[in-house]
């Protein structure tokens, strides 16, 4: 395995510590004990680092929430590369010589591999980050059939089935149980689809009826709905459950500040029923943003 236990310089992030080992092994080429594994790794970087600069900029322009995350990540990775380039880790200086653009490209690739392929495990209550050749080829799922752990007593890394696995079924792990979709796009180059990422939404209102009442109160404050027209919460519950036959479920908001379009449409119908229908759409969006 390649772990973050050894630091090439003071203050190196875990990404850099893992990347430094991968960089060294890659420079040794066929003489590396990891040569068969290295030949299986993709040649290009992972995540947004694999995209052309103009494509990245177009994405950032069209999706503002990702901009700050990308800028911070790029700053950290650039700083780590510069620190590493100030002089190779002591063990590398003699055989690698002067830092070149080829070295820089290889190290940036190694950083990308560390960010996209490393596992995070607990060892004696401390987080350890490591690349485990072979295990890192498992694809992601938020409902995986494998979990993983590191056994400090046997110094082994274990993949453990979380349920019965059918013959021929793909083996999957969860890349990050706490990462948002933005983080997945940044590091892995994709957004999870099925099942939905539970970390990419937040609870906005506990029930659809609560959201409806909140929207009407906001409309009243904005002058679009008279106070006497606002029904009670019980009336809204009866409207949603009995008249419209809808579930009074929690209302969630995504990281980009949007609610499900079907939910938004119900809220527009509620607002249109008790206030000025032609203004319902803009008021719902504004109320959601205010609640966020």
Q: What labels would you give this structure?
A:
single chain; 292 residues; alpha+beta; two-stranded parallel ribbon; 11 helices
Model description:
- By secondary structure, this protein is α+β, with helices and mostly antiparallel strands.
- The protein is built from 11 helices and 9 strands.
- It has helices at residues 14-28, 35-40, 53-62, 65-85, 90-96, 101-117, 181-188, 208-221, 233-243, 261-274, 280-291; strands at 2-3, 119-123, 126-131, 139-140, 146-151, 156-161, 172-173, 201-205, 251-254.
- It has a 3-stranded antiparallel β-sheet with strand order 1-3-2, with helices on one face. The chain has a two-stranded parallel sheet with strand order 4-7.
- Helix 8 (208-221) packs across helix 9, helix 8 packs across helix 10 (261-274) and helix 10 packs across helix 11.
- The longest helix is centred in the N-terminal third of the chain and has 21 residues, at 65-85.
- It starts with a strand and ends with a helix.
Secondary structure class reads: alpha+beta
- Percent of residues in β-strands: 5-15%
**How far is the N terminus from the C terminus?**
43 Å
Mean of pLDDT: 86
Radius of gyration: 25 Å
Low-confidence stretches: none
Net shape: elongated
Q: What's the SSE pattern?
A: EHHHHHHEEEEEEHEHHEHH
Q: How do the strands line up in the largest sheet?
A: 1-3-2
Estimate the helix proportion, in percent: 40-55%
């Amino acid at each position: 395995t390649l772990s973050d236990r050894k630091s090439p310089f003071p203050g190196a992030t875990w990404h850099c510590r893992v990347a430094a080992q991968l960089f060294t092994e890659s420079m040794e080429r066929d003489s590396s004990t990891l040569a068969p594994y290295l030949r299986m790794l993709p040649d290009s970087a992972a995540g947004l680092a694999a995209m052309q600069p103009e494509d990245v900029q177009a994405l950032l322009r069209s999706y503002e929430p990702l901009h700050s995350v990308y800028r911070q990540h790029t700053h950290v990775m650039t700083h780590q590369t510069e620190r590493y380039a100030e002089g190779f880790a002591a063990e590398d200086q003699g055989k690698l010589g002067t830092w070149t653009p080829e070295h820089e490209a290889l190290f940036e690739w190694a950083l990308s591999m560390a960010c996209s392929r490393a596992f995070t495990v607990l060892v004696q209550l401390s987080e350890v980050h490591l690349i485990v050749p072979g295990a890192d080829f498992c694809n992601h799922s938020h409902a995986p059939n494998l979990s993983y752990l590191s056994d400090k007593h046997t110094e082994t890394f274990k993949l453990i089935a979380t349920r019965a696995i059918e013959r021929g079924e793909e083996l999957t792990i969860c890349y990050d149980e706490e990462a948002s979709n933005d983080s997945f796009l940044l590091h892995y180059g994709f957004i999870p689809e099925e099942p939905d990422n539970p970390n990419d939404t937040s609870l906005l209102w506990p029930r659809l009826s609560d959201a409806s009442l909140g929207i009407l109160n906001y409309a009243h404050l904005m002058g679009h709905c008279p106070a006497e027209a606002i029904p009670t919460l019980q009336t809204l519950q009866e409207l949603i459950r009995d008249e419209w036959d809808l579930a009074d479920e929690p209302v969630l908001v995504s990281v980009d500040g949007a609610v499900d379009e079907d939910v938004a449409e119900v809220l527009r119908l509620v607002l249109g029923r008790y206030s000025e229908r032609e203004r319902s759409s803009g008021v719902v969006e504004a109320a959601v943003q205010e609640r966020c």
